[in-house]
Batch of 2 targets.
Target 1
Amino acid sequence: MTLKPKISLGIGILSIFVLAVNPVWGQEGKTTAPAQAPASPPTKPSENLPDAPSSSKTAPSLSDLGFSPEETEANARQQALLDKRTHMLKIHQRMGLITTIPLVATVVTSMNAGGRNTSSASRDLHVALGSVTGDLYGITAYYAIRAPRMQGTETRGQIRLHKTLAWIHGPGMILTPILGAMAFNQKNNGEKVHGIASAHGPVAIVTAGAFGAALLSVSVKF
């Protein structure tokens, strides 16, 4: 056996040994891809039934209860009018109570405002109190007149009596200061109160009585 075949045989044995130890060396330019986990099956989107209840807890709206938008807007307007009417009538009632104070004082001072020997200071005080009473009465009446009216409501009971008495003390509150001014001028001129001016006292008493009865009609239940 010559040297060349021996060398070839030695190289072949060496190659077999190397491939047995590390077989990757025999795959030139090849790389192994990393193993991938098996893909999970696609999930189907959850389908909500038409009648399934919602998970969020919200209060039902008026449309959910069967009210149309027109009915909803009408109800809102009616509620706004009712709130405004209630607010204005509360002020009307409070101003009526406040007006009672100078009204009583005016009636008390009227005892010293009449007669031939009364002083001008007593008459001036009576006129001043009467003016304050008239102004407060006007504010009180304004809130009652300007309060919104609710359609379909019927006035009954003590409220009807309260409104009926307004037709007495309302004109009386207008006529009383007119007659009082006429009587005041006659007294300042040294004259005895005469003519239509002499009705100032009786008209004032009827007016004050009707106003007091109207106040009691909404303050005391009977």
Note: Residues 69-113 form the longest helix (45 residues).
Target 2
Amino acid sequence: MIAIAARCRFLLAGFAAAAMLAAPASAGAATTGDAAGCPDVAVSQPFAAWGDTADYFLAPDGGFEGGGDGWALRGRAAVVGGGSPYGARSLLLPAGSAATSAPFCIGVEHRAMRFVASAATSSELDVDVLYTDARGKSRSERIGELSGTGDWAPTDVMAMLVNTLAAERGNAMTVQIRVAPHGSGSWAIDDVLVDPYKGG
């Protein structure tokens, strides 16, 4: 098994580009140019080291370098310094807590998301997408029930599921991501990323 220190150096190489995702797109930068109804955002391939060469962009303050700007934190959830090999800050989620991102835009091409996390193998985390239905009613869709791996690692790729609803909304709908530990375990997460699928 790779030693934790060496593993962190290896993981950092794969996520070096992710730290740049919060910055506005500049000339020459890859963007979500085919997201017809949503604003263009800069993308990179932060999971390429693990065989995932999809493009991703950060959810609003998804790296928590802004102190969780726009996130609604509940039940002792907090942005903390240190602890993550991917940046200066991460989101700590004790048992009984929850955190909800700021709203952001997705279209039908925003098919999946994932992030990096650390939790005991006995811990579980629920991941939901929050949105408003055609009648204006608030809804949630469970897209992930994750188990801890015991160390910092990328999560499974989670299908957004509700992105198909964007087709009837001008290919642009507003969603939020909510994460909440299930049971007694605590979680730490970082780099909450969304995949704007681009057809070849």
Note: Confidence is low (pLDDT under 50) at residues 1-35.
